[in-house]
Specification:
mainly alpha, methyltransferase activity
């Protein structure tokens, strides 16, 4: 091999390497340019999307602003309508009140029970009901209460143009009269009769207790019985004539106080007086079947009531006063139900 061929071989190798590097550089530049083009396209697309999004947001804000304006306008119209309705409602209420006042005035003029004669009749009914209630409460006069209630019922039934509200009053009066009829005898009269029967039965009680179970007296006791009487010192019976006379007088006084308490319908005073009567019974008479019977009757009389219990008493009077105090209600029109 000559020197010329040997020198051309390195030269060819160096040119080949340069071409390779140039080709690689061209490929790198091509890749970079392609990447830049892709990034630029993506950036343009992103910017286009942002512009579209901004346009959509602006459109939404514009629509929201328009909706707010519409809502504000609707609220103003609603407030105006509410104010108008309030004014109309107040006017209607005023008209209704005026109409009610006119109806009351017309009813006061037209109703026949507002005349003087019928008002006087109702005053008489009220007076009779009050008298009947006071007779029964204060004096226990059931007969007088019956008569007063009967006269009140006759007056109510004799009204020429009765108010429909008085029908309930007549029904209440009928119920109160029925309850009054069911009371029976006056408890005070019954208690007084029982006390008199008890007082009349007291003298029949034995003064000396029968000596049952005691041994027969010895000859010297029988001999000195007319001179000396031996009895236990702890006995509570009043056997001496002076003691018995004083005890009987005290017993009669307590019985009189019991009668007074019955007349006054004083149940507490009656119980206290009967307790003292019971104490004198055990002091004046010895224990016996008759005494126990009288004491049992005394205990029953102690718990007996002295006043009649009538829960409905005065209900008619109260209803009449409440009805007369309330304003009259106008009669309904023919077409109303």
């Amino acid at each position: 091999m000559t020197e010329t061929s040997v020198a051309s071989q390195p030269r060819a190798r160096g040119s080949g390497r340069g071409a390779v590097w140039l080709l690689a550089l061209a490929l790198v530049l091509l890749v970079v340019w392609g990447g830049w083009r892709w990034w630029s396209a993506q950036e343009q697309m992103r910017m286009a999307d942002d512009r579209d999004l901004d346009q959509h947001l602006q459109a939404l804000e514009a629509r929201t602003a328009r909706l707010r304006l519409d809502l504000r306008a609707q609220s103003q119209r609603l407030q105006q309508a509410e104010a108008t309705n309030r004014v109309l409602r107040d006017e209607l209420l005023g008209l209704g009140q005026r109409a009610a006042i006119l109806e009351d005035d017309l009813a006061a003029v037209a109703r026949p029970q507002r005349d003087a004669a019928q008002a006087l009749r109702l005053d008489e009914v009220e007076l009779l009901l009050a008298q009947g209630q006071q007779r029964l409460q204060l004096a226990g006069d059931q007969d007088g209460a019956h008569r007063a209630y009967a006269l009140a019922a006759q007056l109510l039934a004799g009204l020429e143009h009765p108010d429909p509200g008085l029908l309930n009053l007549r029904q209440t009066l009928a119920q109160e009269r029925a309850a009054l009829d069911a009371l029976g005898e006056d408890p005070r009269r019954t208690a007084a009769g029982r006390l008199e029967a008890l007082a009349a039965a007291l003298p029949a009680l034995p003064v000396h207790a029968p000596a049952a179970g005691q041994p027969a007296a010895s000859w010297w006791q029988r001999a000195f019985a007319r001179l000396v009487e031996v009895r236990p010192s702890d006995g509570a019976l009043a056997l001496e004539p002076a003691d018995r006379a004083a005890g009987l007088a005290a017993l009669q006084l307590e019985l009189t106080l019991s009668r007074v308490a019955i007349e006054r319908r004083d149940e507490a005073g009656l119980r206290e007086a009967l307790d003292r009567v019971d104490a004198w019974l055990t002091r004046l008479w010895p224990d016996s079947a008759g005494l126990r019977e009288r004491r049992a009757a005394l205990a029953a009389l102690r718990e007996a009531p002295l006043s009649a219990s009538l829960p409905s008493l005065g209900s008619t009077l109260e209803q009449l006063r409440r009805q007369r105090a309330s304003p009259p209600r106008p009669a309904a029109a023919p077409g109303e139900s």
